[in-house]
Write a structure and sequence with these properties.
This protein folds into four domains: about 90 residues, no CATH class; about 60 residues, Dna Ligase, domain 1 (2-Layer Sandwich); about 100 residues, no CATH class; about 170 residues, no CATH class. By secondary structure, the protein is mainly alpha-helical.
Amino acid sequence: MERPNPSGQDDNWLDEYFDAPEMGGEIGPDEQAVSAAGLTDPADMELEKILKEVADEVKQEMAEERGAAPGEPESEPEEHIPQGEPFRDDEYRDTFGDGGSLAAVFGEEPPAEKEPEPLPELEEEPPAQEEPPRKRRPRHKPGYGLLGIPHILATVVWLGIALAIGISLGRLIWVCAAEVLAFGKEDREVTVTIADSDDIPAIAQKLLDAGLIRYPKLFTFYADFTDAREDIASGTFTLNTRYDYNALIDFMAEEAETREVVEVVIPEGYTCAQIFKLLEDKGVCTVEQLEKYAADGDLGDYAGTGGVEGYWFLEGVERGGKYCLEGYLYPDTYQFYTDDDAGRVLKKFLDAFDARFTDLMKERLAEIGETFAQRLLDAGMDEEYVAQHPITIREITIIASLIERETAGADESFTISSVIYNRLTHPEDYPNLAIDAALVYALGLEGREVEVLTEADLAFDSPYNTYLYPGLIPGPICNPGQASLNAALTPQDTDYYYYAYDPNTQRHHFSETAAGHNEFLASLED
């Protein structure tokens, strides 16, 4: 754009002093240009002093035009022009300024003041921002890196340890697997007896002693892990050394066929003491185990049709005594395991009693109860006495036990039953049953074995002494069989009130009166 010229003067006069071709170049200390301008040769006068004086005059005038006080320093200090430095554009601008200042030098009105356009400046690189220090992995000292010699040695050591552990662990696993699975064992049968009180460590020791296992702690761990104790039953088992752990446990289960089974015949009329002793002799249970379970063992969750503790016929039975189940251990032929569980054995007896007491017998029980009550009323007993002397399953069992111990044969059981009922229904005339078997039982509870009763025995104070205490005894005196139970439910209709054993016939002689009875006894003495 062309600069306006308010003075009207021609600016081409500068061409007289500066050749046009040289205008495009940088203004410098050209000798020809200086001579054409009428200036002194640079050799006679220092160009620097001249330029400085001119610059000072121009700046003074510019300061006066701006209203600045004479001698007031510029806002920006002048740059020092070094000696001997060639004339440059920047130096020229320092002296004459830009467009407006040059007009002031030549007496022209300066143009309207405006912001000077900034000269393009070289882009300076922004100062590098200081980066936060990076966390660098510390360098290992030589010899401790992954490939350092000490590290290699440590690696070799650790590899050796790992290899040794791996080999040992593998061998341990193989040994345990071979033991659990019975690899390489010989074929040999052995017998092991497991008691009901044995825990898993005790069982493991017995298996070790029999040569069935080699590591009892491993078997204990396996049994605990699989809850094997719930499956292992007591008894004597025939096992093979080739059985693995699972087979050993299976063959020691309650239903295992390898358990040794014994057959036990319980005679009719045996007492609980006799039955317990027989079972102990057969290796089924000990007397102590049976007595303890009979006294306070759980009977409520087994067979039976309801009632007290799961068995209806135990109603009225007071638990706590070692022979409290007397009368209900049904005599029969049983098969038990050796070292069997006492509770299972006793429940087997009770289940048999429940099974043998048929529905027909239950009907007879209701009938005999009504008949007995009516006979008491007919004998002149009042209602209160009748209510206090009912006939229940408890009384039937007691009567059956008396019949069982008194009878000399099944053919006379119903007749003996009639004598007992005749006396019970006439308590005023025959208050006492006078049955020797009950007194013998009481003496046996005291540890006394009696074959012939003496006068002293007849005076023995016990509720089982039917010579001293009236009515029925407190409980059964033995465990009656089926015939005695039937006889107690269906007594023969007779008028007998007495009976005595006849050694000549090995049967009992029955009498209606005391005179006839005494006469028979006298004949025996003769």
